[in-house]
Amino acid sequence: MHWLEAVQAIFLGIVEGLTEFLPISSTGHLIVAGAVVRFNGEGADTFFVAIQAGAILAVCWYYRDRIISILKNLFHPGKDQRLAVNTVVAFIPAALIGLMLAKAIKMYLFNPVTVAVTLIVGGIVILLVENINFRKAWTPRVETMDDMTVKDAFGVGCMQCLALIPGMSRSGATIIGGMVLGLSRRAATEFSFFLSIPTIFGATVYDLFKNYESLSVEMGPAILLGGVVSFISAIVVVKWLLAFVSHNDFRGFGWYRIVFGLVVLFLAAESFI
Fold it and tell me: Which single residue of 35, 96, 138, 263 could bond 273 by disulfide (Cβ 3.0 to 4.6 Å)?
């Protein structure tokens, strides 16, 4: 592996890990980051998908004790079984719609302008939701993800379908959507993390299977390096975000999305991306 490829892999791994679980769209950031380091040729999309594995493993590692507990108690009624059922229920809507519309989404929506518009629209939605909650002295109906019902999980799963639009952000759709449905910020954030495990894993496996022709042995070291860096940076983000939501709202992310969306629009207009 050439040193330049190593630098590209490290940079893109950091971007993926830092943005995957924040409500700011990892897709939008990877498009811009890929253009910055001139990593946008054949195989770039496959590389972006492959290094998501590092982010998935970061969540699995952070919640390893809870995941082990769920596996032990999967067939015993209780909070572990309930969380497992809720995660599966929430996963189904986006999985079904994604399978049906994957080709159309890639063909018609996977472009910088769509990403920029959804970044801006998503940012405005975050600001509206947080401002409404602030004015109403919002009190969540569901304090922890263990208090969620199947109906709550299905609602979050439907919200996740919005993330099929590039730039919308899976974490943004599920966290803000969860809050709209009555979940506390922490409950929505933690359930979003858990929901990411089957969602991102399924999307990664499906995409790699459909595009295996673009994979090559030469890409192996770069994918491995990018995945490891993604894992490390994602661990940092998961820990930070859980601490952040305990004392802060998401308005800062809303403003960031709007500014970044405008930057993406400008770069697209200048044919930089």
Answer: 35
